[in-house]
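Researcher: Last one for today. Full complex below.
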Amino acid sequence: GDSWGIFTFLCAALCNLPALPALNCSEELGAGQSIQQTYDLTRYLEHQLRTLAGTYLNYLGPPFNEPDFNPPRLARAERVPSATVDLDLWRGLTDNARLAANYRAYSRLLCYLRVLDGQVGTAELRHRLAHFCASLQGLVLSIGGVMSSLGYPLPTGPAGPPAPSGAPVASNDFLKKMDDFWLLKELQTWLWRSAKDFNRLKKKVPPAVVTLRLEARGF
Amino acid sequence: DSHIQYERVGADVTMKCGSMDWDAAVTWTANGTDIDESHLNGSYLILKNVDLSQSGQYSCYEGSSWHLKYQTSLRVGTPPKEPVLMCRSNNYPKGFYCSWHLPTPTYIPNTFNISVIHGTKDMVCEKDAVPKNRCHIRYLQLFSTVKYKVTLTVTNALGKNFTTLTFDEFAIVKPDPPESVVAKPVPNNPRRLEVSWQNPSSWPDPESFPLKFFLRYRPLILDQWQHVELSDGTSHTITDAYAGKEYIIQVAAKDNDIGTWSDWSVAVHATPWTEEPKHLTTEAQITETTSASTSSFMAPPTTKICDKGAMVGSGAVAVCWTAGLVMAAYSVLFI
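Model: Here's the assembly. Have a good evening.
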């Protein structure tokens, strides 16, 4: 009961924090962000994630670090945004919807990762996670930049996870590890999907040069 | 009435002559040929340690009337070994196919049953007409985090066996090799070869799921391949070919982001453009001038010796040449 409240608060706090340093980063990213660069970022992140996931799963220990580990998906894990989508639906997404789905997903995934960062034991893991979070934030900003340049509004709504659906936070150590496992899995799948999303966008939309006007957006 | 009987290789088989008593007088035949009485135990036919060659039609006839009392087709075989299963998506994102075979033959009919489970859902793998041991599945969802589990069971009259494959959607993506690979020389460029190819026709959507390519080439006379990776386009110009040498060239394809490389394409051969050889007499003159200048440079003393000999004939000239060379060798030594 109470732990869920603390969790939501933590997430909300951590997710609003980076708004300030983000201003500085965005000015660097401001010029010349294109869909191609966003695509390249997803590939870079996917590569980074492989190392991070390997280290993290080893930290969780067996069975999470076993290659054959194929657990059933528990309902609770639905809190993490899923990349899975119906094939025809995915094909038919408008550019706006496609970009928005990516933006929302990575914003929330970033949030969950940040909570993770606060909890892990080893310094090496904390360092890796921090680095990854920084890159992931870069991706979110990059997608936002593409959307702005195309005249699409940035998706609104809580930057943190949605209101609790009634599912309790993992009080059990094993269930918590399962949540972490699925978080990493979804992140990996999203990065694979994004490569395909941005491939599609590349073909349909010419590379956009973006000048971010973050002040105007009230960031 | 007729029967079929399946037995394992190495087993001992006892065949009864239908409802006939043990002590009845009968004759057994194997594929029409009488079987020796030594194999009989009363009216029972005993076959010990059967092998594949003993498969066939066995018939039992009543002794005197020669009535056919019993007939059976004996099939000697083995229970199935663990089958070999392979699943691959060469048409991503449409779906994937699985194909299978037995590592060793069983010599008797087998039935294959394949099941595909995706998370909690059972999926139907539609069997292909051709080739036979193959089925395909259409993806309903893309970018799935849940693995696919494929189980293949093979059953025959003597036993059963099975194998399982578990994989992620992305792991099995492997396109077919590129098609229509063509390599041509480039006029007036003795070190170039122009290579072009096409996306495999089984890849349904190269626009949204672009392929990247790997080209390898080497002259036939060398073993070492040279490689080029190309992230765009379906053509490439080789610019470092050895002049006049025949090359062998192959191309492979891969989805830009996921899966593994295709097999190599069919190999094509090409030789870079070479200049046409000039008129023959010109060449001969060049050789003559070269040798004449060499001889005059090499051994001045010999010209004195040879001057007289040169008039006599070709034989004398040959001797002269040899003498000149020997003199030249000695003069080099002294230098």
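Chain A touches chain B through 27 residues (CB under 8 Å). The beta strands of chain A are 85-86.
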